Amino acid sequence: MSVHVADDVIRLEGACPVEDAETLLIALQEGPDRSVDVAALASAHLAVIQVLLATRPKLVGSSGNAFLESFVLPGLRKGTG
User: Total structural domains in the chain?
Assistant: First the structure.
């Protein structure tokens, strides 16, 4: 599993497959003020991205994945603190 919850931070690590979308959604519903750390995120299934888009948590860190950093995460960060 690539979704880890510690207090007020949800850490996404490695490749996040479709199965992690539900885990991420539940973690965000249980703690709507939690931020999501993407520093260790290598790749994410579109379902995981959709959860982030729907819930708009505060994203922290920079992914090492150039595609995510250039094209996906900026749109998810827009309008968030």
Answer: 1
